[in-house]
């Protein structure tokens, strides 16, 4: 009997257990709201305010109360002022992550500047589980300016799109927040109403024609902004879903919105929800509702806050603001089918403590994304095979103060064998006698494995870099430039490294290195030739073993814009037949990359590293140098030598045009012989500037270092860090 009961209950148990799996649809709730700055945008030192700070706090609390009730997963915010503090306050109150973009602010150093009460922008908030990250910021209109939290300077209205990315069950989804310009559209009925209401005997036909020309010019701005937005979206991976939301200041029947739907193949969540019959009967609601929203009355007046009359165009705008319309939207890429929209409605319209949250109402959409998750690719943490190969050759014609005029070729081959490998080859000669031949084989390629989990990777390097005219100044910081002497150095280094990506950010490496370096062709009376140990004037050879452990959160190996690198390394060259030098080297370094200005995208890159050598009678081929194109630009190659070295570099990296970028930097460094001698005084330092040209797989750099003793010009490949 007990067995029968078990058999009877088994289908019920299975049904109860299985039912949530096939009946539950993952839902993503999207909310967009223009939160209203409460400013009139008139003034120089300060903009006029429609309300006291106490009322703004009431509006914020009304917004927060309603958002907590709705419990959205993603929130798109427009017209947030002051954008950084406002979105941070909102995100902290909701326990969400946030990203934001300064759009219009005037002249600001941090929070200080003019107008004093204005630093407006857009933002995206998301629940922590979605791992929200800032992907990019795209300027849609406006003249040149700098836009960022630390520093902003511009002199006209600018419009932006903020691009973020979330992950739902490891499937990426792009989020695009937009706030288009609020210009009056070409509308014959509106212009006729304006003529009837405001035309007087003092106004002639010429004035009206001027007004219409202004309307015609300004009404095309949103279309231009949408075209710029679409061009940016085309650069995103086609297989990844996109959600665009924000204040478009245009109805879905306006030409610019039709362009977004037709050319971009985006569907309007609200309209599609009505068409599918999920709202029955279909209803029409407005996010700009002069009849229901108390805050809009500020916009419909023809009198400014200071009592002055508005201009003709501003009067036309006031008349237009008296019309109800739906100008806030949520658009979905064609990855989302209409049936995935389970609901879409107007929200955030309540009156709480006698205030409404904004002069806009919000739009909320619930999206059933199970099909999206099934049909969209996951953002894999492991390396996937490339479908195509890449070959990028570069002829070299250069000048470097240390090596003279140079000529040669660089070649980069990616995935030519079909196993994600790369070959990096440099063949270079110069008039001052440098002979540089370098070969690097990596499997998988450095950039492909950046931020990935992988069982192992192999890097094999052969580097021959003969200098016929090499410099020696002496040992230590007190070495003098006028004591410079020349000799020939002929080094060869062969190394192999095996690494493993334990996680997306933790990498371990072990390897072996063989290096031999011959010094010869000394000038008569050379101090170096007579200076002990004897290996200074002959060949120093070692075979060493090393290991490194690295925390690396960079978003790119080739050209990082954000992330942190903490690196530790230990290298041992034991006494044995394969070496005539033995030593222990310990190194530590830290690199940090952050976006200082979102537009133009300006990166602040900082590096600080320290190395220590332990061993006796070490020749100069082994000592730690600073100076030259990779450490202290503007000082000659190996200007300072000793057993302990410290180098720091600060760079601002910014775009110029097309693939060209610029760099402004500052390098500093110092050497010591013993740990006990470490101090913070008399560091060598040089400012520098440079140009970068960005290929798909590597970067060409040209730097000018301004040293106290020399000015150095350097051409090489890749950022110095």
Can you describe this structure?
The chain has 721 residues and is an alpha+beta fold. The protein is built from 12 helices and 35 strands. The chain has a 16-stranded antiparallel beta sheet. Strands 3-6-2-1-17-14 form a 6-stranded mixed beta sheet. A hairpin with a 4-residue loop joins strand 34 and strand 35.
Uncertain residue segments: 1-24
Domain tally? 2
Provide the CATH superfamily of the largest domain.
Endonuclease/exonuclease/phosphatase
Shape verdict: elongated
Q: In total, how many beta strands?
A: 35
Count of alpha/pi helices: 12
- Second CATH tier, the architecture of the largest domain: 4-Layer Sandwich
Q: Please give the alpha-carbon distance between the first and last residues.
A: 75 Å
Provide the CATH top-level class of the largest domain: Alpha Beta
Strand content: 35-45%
Structural class computed from helices and strand pairing = alpha+beta
Main sheet properties: 16 strands, antiparallel
């Amino acid at each position: 009997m007990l067995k029968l009961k078990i058999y009877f209950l088994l289908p019920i148990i299975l049904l109860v257990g299985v039912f949530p799996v096939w009946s539950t649809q993952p839902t993503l709730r999207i909310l967009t709201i223009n939160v209203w700055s409460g400013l009139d945008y008139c003034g120089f030192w300060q903009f006029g305010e429609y309300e006291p700070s106490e009322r703004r706090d009431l509006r914020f609390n009304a917004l927060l109360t309603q958002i907590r009730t709705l419990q959205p997963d993603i929130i798109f915010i427009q017209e947030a002022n002051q954008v950084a503090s406002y979105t941070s306050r909102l995100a902290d109150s909701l326990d969400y992550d946030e990203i934001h973009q300064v759009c219009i602010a005037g002249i600001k150093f941090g929070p200080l500047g003019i107008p004093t009460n204005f630093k407006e922008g857009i933002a995206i908030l998301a629940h922590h589980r979605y791992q929200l990250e800032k992907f990019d910021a795209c300027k849609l209109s406006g003249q040149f300016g700098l836009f960022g939290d630390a520093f902003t300077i511009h002199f006209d209205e600018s419009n932006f799109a903020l691009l973020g990315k979330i992950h739902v069950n490891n499937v990426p989804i792009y989020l695009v927040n937009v706030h288009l310009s609020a210009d009056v559209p070409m509308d014959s009925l509106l212009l006729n109403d304006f003529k009837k209401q405001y035309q007087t005997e003092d106004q002639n036909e010429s004035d009206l024609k001027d007004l219409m020309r202004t309307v015609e010019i300004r009404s095309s701005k949103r279309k231009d902004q949408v075209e710029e937005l679409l061009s940016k979206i085309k650069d995103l991976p086609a297989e990844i879903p996109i959600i665009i939301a924000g204040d478009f200041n245009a109805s879905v029947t306006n030409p610019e919105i039709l362009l977004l739907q037709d050319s971009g193949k985006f569907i309007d969540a609200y309209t599609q929800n009505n068409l599918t019959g999920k709202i029955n009967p279909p209803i029409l609601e407005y996010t700009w509702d002069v009849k229901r929203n108390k805050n809009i009355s500020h916009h419909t007046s023809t009198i400014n806050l200071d009592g002055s009359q508005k201009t003709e165009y501003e009067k036309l705008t006031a008349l237009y603001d008296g019309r109800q319309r739906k100008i806030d939207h949520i658009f979905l890429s064609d990855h989302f089918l209409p049936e995935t929209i389970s609901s879409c409605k107007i929200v955030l319209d309540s009156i709480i403590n006698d205030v409404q949250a904004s002069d806009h109402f919000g739009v909320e959409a619930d999206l059933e994304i199970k099909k999206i998750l099934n049909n969209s690719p996951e953002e894999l943490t492991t390396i996937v095979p490339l479908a195509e190969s890449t070959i990028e050759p570069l002829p070299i014609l250069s000048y470097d103060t240390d090596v003279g005029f140079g000529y040669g070729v660089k070649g980069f081959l990616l995935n030519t064998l079909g196993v994600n490998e790369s070959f990096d080859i440099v063949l270079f000669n110069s008039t001052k006698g440098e002979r540089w031949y370098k070969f690097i084989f990596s499997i998988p390629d450095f950039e492909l494995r950046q931020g990935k989990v992988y069982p192992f990777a192999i890097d094999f390097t052969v580097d021959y870099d003969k200098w016929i005219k090499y410099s020696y100044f002496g040992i230590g910081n007190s070495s003098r430039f006028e004591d410079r002497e020349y000799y020939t150095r002929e080094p060869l280094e062969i190394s192999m490294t095996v690494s493993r990506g334990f996680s997306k950010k933790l990498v371990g490496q072990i390897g072996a290195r063989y290096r031999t370096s011959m010094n010869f062709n000394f000038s008569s009376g050379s101090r170096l030739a007579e200076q002990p140990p004897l290996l200074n004037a002959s060949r120093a050879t070692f075979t060493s073993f090393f290991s490194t452990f690295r925390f690396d959160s960079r978003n790119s190996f080739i050209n990082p814009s954000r992330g942190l690198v903490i690196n530790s390394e230990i290298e041992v060259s034991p006494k044995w037949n394969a070496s005539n030098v033995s030593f222990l080297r310990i190194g530590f370094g830290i690199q940090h990359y952050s976006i200082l200005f979102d537009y133009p995208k300006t990166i602040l890159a900082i590096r600080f590293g320290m190395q220590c050598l332990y061993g006796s009678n070490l020749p100069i081929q082994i000592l730690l140098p600073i100076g030259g194109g990779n450490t202290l630009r503007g000082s000659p190659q190996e200007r300072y030598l000793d057993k302990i070295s410290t180098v720091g570099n600060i760079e601002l990296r910014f775009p110029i045009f097309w693939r060209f970028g610029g760099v402004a930097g500052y390098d500093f460094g110092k050497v010591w012989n013993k740990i006990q001698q470490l101090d913070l005084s008399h560091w060598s330092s040089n400012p520098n500037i440079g140009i970068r040209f960005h290929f798909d797989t590597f970067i060409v750099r040209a730097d000018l270092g301004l040293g106290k003793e020399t000015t150095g010009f350097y051409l090489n490949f890749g950022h110095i860090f």
